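Section 5: illustrative case.
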C-alpha cells in the first residue's frame, strides 16, 4: 500500500513540479531497487551541480532557528527545476521559496529527531552510497572495447548445449575441486565419443537438462552471463570447451551452429492462464479464441477482450521487441518461425499458460553508431563491468602511494605460522592492513593476495571519493537528505495513516461525498462478429435462456460465434459500447469492425456512496495528504524561519 501511495505521490510531485522534495525519489529506491539506475538519472537532474560558490562569498537567504541556509542551495534547485518544466507549469520564485522552506523544515526535524544516527538508516545510506559510486568505477577505453565486442557478437547467433555442475559462492577449495573433477569427467566422456545429450542428462545439474539434454537453442550477446557468452562465442563449431566458471558453477559448452542474427522481433499475443481448479479451462478458452480469429475476428479486439496478460492486453496484445535468446524458448521459437507480418501461430503452451502469437514487425541489427549508447548501458550494469573495474585499479595504483611488505606477505602466506599477525603487510597512503587482515581475506575461496591489494585500493578510493570529487559529494548529500526525509515521512505520515483506523474512518466520514459509485448496471454481455448470430443471441436472451444454453445453441462445435462475460459496470465503463443506453432488458449494439454486443441489463444501480473497504487504498492516500498538510503547518509554528527579504528581493527580481 505504501508503495502504491508513493508512486502516486511521485506523479503528483512532478505534475506540480515540487522537485525540491526528493523524498518521492527515495520511495522508489526503497521499494523498487532494480530501478536504481533510472532513479539515479532523476536525482542527477537536480543534484549533480558542483558547489563552486565559496561560503565566504555566499549570502544567507534565510535562517531556521538561527541555522543559515544559503542562496546557492536555493538557486541550485530553482534553476535546475526551471530548466526542465514546461512553460505552462512554471512556478514563480516566490512559490519555489515556499516549497523550499517546507523541504528544509522537514529536514531540520529529521535531524533534530536524530534519525540520521539510527542503525537502519546508516545501513540504507551506505548501501545507496555504494550504488552511487558505481559510475565512478568506469574506464572509457575498456568500455569502448567491450561495446565493440558486444556489437560484433550481436550480429551472430550461437546454437549451443551445456552441462552445469553447480557450485555455491564461497565454497571450500575441496568442494571446488570436486565440482571441477566432475565437469572434467563429463567432458572426457564427450571427447571419447559419448553423446552430449545423454551425458548432459547424466551429469548436468541444470534441471532443464533432464528434458532438453542441455540444448539451449540459439542465443546472442547479453542472453547469457558474460563468461558463458564468451565461451560460446570463442568455441569452434562442433567442439566442446574446457570447463569455465560462472556464478552458477562450472560449465562446459558445445557449439552446434553459428548463424547470422535474426535481430529482434515484436509480436502481439493473447494469453490465457491455467486454472488449478479447472485444468482444461485455458486450453479450451484459447482454442475458442483462436477459432474466433480464424472466423474473421480482429486479433487486437480479441486480445483486449480476453487476454490475461493485463500489461499487453490494453495494447491489443503487443509486447516489447525481443531477441531469440531473451525470451523463454517455446515462445521465442514459435514467434521467430512466423515469416510474414500479420501471421498468427496456432495455440501453444508455456509455463505461463496458453498463447497465440501474431508477428508485428522484424528489427534487423542496427548499425554500430545507432546501438552504441544502448550497448554501453547494458555493459555498465552487467558482468562486463568487472573488467572495467580492473582497469580502474591499475590507474589508482599509479595515483596512490601503495606499499607491500614482502616479508610480511611471506608470513601471511605461511598458513601455520602464528607470529607476526599484527605486522603491517599493506599500506595505501595513510591506511594500513595487517598480516591478520590478509589471512582472513585469503581464507575465502579462490582469493589471492593480489585480489586483496586490488580490493583495498578500491575500498580506499570509495572511502575518499566524497572528499576528492565535489560532483559526487553534492549527489551524496541529496541521497543522504532524501533517505532522512523518507524515514521521517514514514514515521510521521505513512505508517500513521496505515495504522490509525479511527482517524482514517473519521476522515472518510467527513469526506464521504468524494467517494461515490457512478450510476451502474448489472448486465450480461455477449460478443458476436456475425449479424445473423447476434440477432439469434438477442432472441435467446429475450427468451430468458442462460449463457450456457445460448452458447450450445449458437456455437457450431469448434466454430465459436458468441462469447460471454457478466458483472456490474459503471455506465462509462470501456466494457460497454460507446452508444450504450441505460435501460433494463436486452439490446443489441453494433461496434467498430462489425462487432456486435448484445447486452441484457438485469438491474440499474443508482449512484451511491462507496464503503471504506471498497476504496481503502485511495482513502489512505488522501488521508496521508491531509496529515502532511497539517504537519507542515505545525512545523511552520514550531521552528522560527527568518527570511532575508532584501536578499530574496534581488533573487526574485532577477529570476521573475
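Designed sequence:
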Amino acid at each position: 500500500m505504501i508503495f502504491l501511495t508513493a508512486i502516486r505521490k511521485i506523479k503528483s510531485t512532478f505534475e506540480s513540479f515540487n522537485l525540491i522534495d526528493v523524498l518521492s525519489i527515495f520511495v522508489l529506491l526503497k521499494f523498487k531497487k532494480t530501478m536504481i539506475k533510472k532513479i539515479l538519472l532523476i536525482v542527477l537532474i537536480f543534484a549533480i551541480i558542483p558547489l563552486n560558490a565559496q561560503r565566504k562569498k555566499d549570502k544567507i537567504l534565510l535562517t531556521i532557528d538561527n541555522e543559515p541556509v544559503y542562496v546557492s542551495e536555493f538557486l541550485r534547485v530553482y534553476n535546475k527545476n526551471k530548466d526542465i518544466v514546461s512553460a505552462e507549469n512554471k512556478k514563480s520564485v516566490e512559490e519555489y521559496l515556499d516549497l523550499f522552506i517546507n523541504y528544509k523544515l522537514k529536514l531540520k526535524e529529521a535531524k533534530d529527531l536524530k534519525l540520521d544516527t539510527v542503525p537502519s538508516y546508516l545501513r540504507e545510506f551506505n548501501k545507496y552510497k555504494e550504488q552511487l559510486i558505481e559510475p565512478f568505477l568506469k574506464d572509457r577505453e575498456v568500455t569502448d572495447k567491450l561495446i565493440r565486442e558486444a556489437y560484433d557478437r550481436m550480429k551472430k547467433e550461437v546454437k549451443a548445449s551445456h552441462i552445469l555442475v553447480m557450485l555455491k559462492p564461497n565454497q571450500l577449495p575441496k568442494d571446488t575441486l570436486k565440482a571441477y573433477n566432475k565437469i572434467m569427467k563429463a567432458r572426457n566422456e564427450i571427447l571419447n565419443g559419448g553423446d552430449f545429450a545423454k551425458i548432459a542428462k547424466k551429469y548436468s545439474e541444470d534441471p532443464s537438462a533432464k528434458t532438453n539434454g542441455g540444448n539451449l537453442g540459439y542465443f546472442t550477446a547479453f542472453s547469457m552471463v558474460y563468461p558463458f557468452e564468451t565461451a560460446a562465442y570463442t568455441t569452434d563449431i562442433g567442439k566442446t570447451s574446457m570447463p569455465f566458471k560462472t556464478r552458477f558453477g562450472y560449465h562446459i559448452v558445445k557449439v552446434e551452429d553459428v548463424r547470422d542474427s535474426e535481430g529482434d522481433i515484436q509480436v502481439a499475443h493473447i494469453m490465457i492462464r491455467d486454472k488449478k481448479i479447472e485444468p482444461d479451462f485455458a486450453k479450451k478458452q484459447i482454442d475458442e479464441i483462436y477459432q474466433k480469429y480464424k472466423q474473421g475476428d480482429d486479433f487486437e479486439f480479441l486480445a483486449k477482450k480476453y487476454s490475461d496478460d493485463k500489461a499487453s492486453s490494453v495494447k491489443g496484445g503487443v509486447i516489447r521487441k525481443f531477441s531469440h535468446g531473451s525470451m523463454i524458448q517455446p515462445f521465442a521459437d514459435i514467434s521467430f518461425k512466423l515469416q510474414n507480418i500479420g501471421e498468427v501461430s496456432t495455440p501453444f503452451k508455456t509455463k505461463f499458460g496458453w498463447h497465440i502469437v501474431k508477428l508485428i514487425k522484424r528489427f534487423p541489427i542496427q548499425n554500430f553508431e545507432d546501438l552504441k549508447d544502448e550497448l554501453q548501458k547494458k555493459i555498465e550494469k552487467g558482468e562486463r563491468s568487472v573488467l572495467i573495474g580492473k582497469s580502474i585499479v591499475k590507474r589508482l595504483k599509479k595515483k596512490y602511494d601503495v606499499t607491500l611488505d614482502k616479508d610480511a606477505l611471506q608470513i601471511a602466506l605461511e598458513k601455520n605460522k602464528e607470529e607476526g599477525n599484527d605486522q603491517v603487510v599493506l599500506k595505501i597512503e595513510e591506511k594500513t592492513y595487517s598480516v591478520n587482515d590478509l589471512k582472513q581475506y585469503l581464507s575465502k575461496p579462490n582469493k589471492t593476495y593480489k585480489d586483496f591489494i586490488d580490493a583495498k585500493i578500491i575500498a580506499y578510493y570509495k572511502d575518499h571519493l566524497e572528499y576528492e570529487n565535489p560532483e559526487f559529494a553534492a549527489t551524496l548529500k541529496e541521497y543522504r537528505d532524501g533517505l532522512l526525509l523518507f524515514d521521517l515521512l514514514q514515521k510521521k505520515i505513512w505508517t500513521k495513516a496505515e495504522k490509525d483506523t479511527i482517524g482514517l474512518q473519521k476522515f472518510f466520514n467527513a469526506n464521504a461525498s468524494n467517494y461515490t459509485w457512478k450510476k451502474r448496471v448489472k448486465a450480461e454481455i455477449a460478443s458476436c462478429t456475425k449479424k445473423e448470430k447476434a440477432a439469434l443471441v438477442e432472441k435467446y436472451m429475450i427468451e430468458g435462456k442462460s449463457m450456457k444454453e445460448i452458447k450450445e445453441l449458437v456455437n457450431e462445435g469448434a466454430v465459436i460465434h458468441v462469447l460471454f462475460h457478466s458483472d456490474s459496470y459503471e455506465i462509462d465503463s470501456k466494457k460497454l459500447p460507446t452508444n450504450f443506453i441505460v435501460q433494463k432488458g436486452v439490446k443489441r449494439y453494433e461496434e467498430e469492425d462489425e462487432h456486435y454486443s448484445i447486452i441484457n441489463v438485469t438491474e440499474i444501480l443508482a449512484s451511491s456512496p462507496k464503503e471504506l473497504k471498497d476504496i481503502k487504498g485511495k482513502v489512505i492516500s488522501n488521508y496521508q495528504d491531509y496529515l502532511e498538510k497539517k504537519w507542515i503547518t505545525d512545523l511552520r509554528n514550531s521552528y522560527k524561519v527568518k527570511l532575508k527579504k532584501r536578499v530574496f528581493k534581488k533573487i526574485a527580481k532577477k529570476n521573475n
